[in-house]
Amino acid sequence: MKKVFLLLAVSTAIITACETTTNKTEGTEGAKTDTTMVEDKEERNKKVVMASMEAMIAKNVDEAFKDVAPDAVDYNDGSMPAIKGKDSIMNMVKQWVNAFPDNKGQDIKYVADGDWVMVWGEWSGTFKNDFMGMKATNKSYKLKDVDIFKLNDAGQITEHHNIQSPNTMMGQVGMTPPKK
């Protein structure tokens, strides 16, 4: 009888130990899953922005905007009114690409943090065609800038901000704002 109780006690201890280990493992895996999900989302967001930037550098505006939400807003550096709506932003960018056909980015770095992706790089181009009523000057610009993108849960770009004031670039290429 003692052997039966001893066997029962040992079996119970083993089963309890296994359940405790399983619960701890499941809890740890759950925590890893949450962390992994955040990392996966950040990596996805970074890839979306990288693809968009690469398409912009290749002058393929339609491809650059394929993952932009219809209600996206471009805040620029905040010194000018925000541009609202994917179509309005695309129209302005197409005009920009036409005005600065040799626009390029170099030494580009990407950093993702949750819903936000930051892109740091050095940009240059030559003002070769008129832009929004401003006459081309054939002068070049070169500057460093950070573009900041916010993405939604579906992986679409919903906001754009940048650090560099457009006045810096405008001054380098001899642009004067259009008269009202």
From TrEMBL:
Stored Pfam families:
SnoaL
The residue stretches assigned to a coiled coil in this entry are none
Q: Which domain of life is it from?
A: Bacteria
Q: Write out the transmembrane intervals.
A: none
The UniProt record lists the keyword Ion transport: no
Gene3D superfamilies annotated for this entry? Answer: 3.10.450.50
Q: Which GO BP terms, alphabetically?
A: polyketide metabolic process
Keywords from the named record: Signal
**Keyword hit for Signal:** yes
Signal peptide start and end residues: 1-17
User: How is this protein named in the record?
Assistant: Ester cyclase
Instruction: Give the species.
Output: Niastella caeni
